[in-house]
Design a protein that fits this description.
Blueprint lengths: L5 E4 L5 H9 L7 H9 L9 E6 L2 E11 L8 E9 L8 H15 L4 E4 L6 H9 L16 H4 L1
Parallel strand pairs: 4-5
Antiparallel strand pairs: 1-2, 2-3, 3-4
Helix pairs in contact: 1-2
Length: 151
């Protein structure tokens, strides 16, 4: 990659690029759906998101959620989305996005940056370990859609 990577806050105008990038994670959201989701957190204070641009195109994105937790003395930051375009992987874009997320988390007073990743994403897990992340818990989830009807 010959050009410099620029990292900037996400904008609603990035919806088409976000739609394309999210396909790299196996999601097929429409541009309208991405726009709707971006509008859910208009000030982005607790949900900052950044885009990495390379050669004038969105090459990656990272989104965080910052929240106080009852059992931690300081808020935590969770990476909720990290994706780099397949064509630009292994060029430092993911690392630059995580470094920018660390800076945002520290600015917000967090002392922990965490993430979840699918069990089958072994390359992603190796990437996170190379950046210093440790596996510290096991995440479980309960889908709420339809749960009330089943009871």
């Amino acid at each position: 990659m010959s050009s410099t990577v620029q990292i900037r806050p996400i904008a609603v105008a990035d919806a088409p690029a976000i739609t394309r990038l999210m396909q790299g994670l196996g999601f097929d959201h429409s541009v309208e759906e991405i726009g709707r989701r971006l509008a859910m957190a208009p000030d982005r204070a607790s949900d900052p998101a950044l885009v990495a641009e390379a050669e004038g195109q969105a090459a990656g994105l990272i989104a965080l959620h910052i929240a106080p937790m009852l059992f931690y003395p300081k808020p935590i930051a969770r990476i909720t989305t990290l994706v780099v375009d397949v064509a630009t992987r292994r060029h430092g874009i993911g690392r630059a996005l995580v470094e920018a997320a660390v800076a945002l988390a520290e600015e917000a007073g967090c002392d922990t940056l965490e993430l979840t990743t699918a069990l089958h994403r072994e390359e992603a897990q190796a990437f996170y370990r190379a950046l210093g992340f440790d596996c510290t818990s096991f995440r479980m989830a309960l889908r709420l859609q339809g749960i009330t009807a089943a009871r």
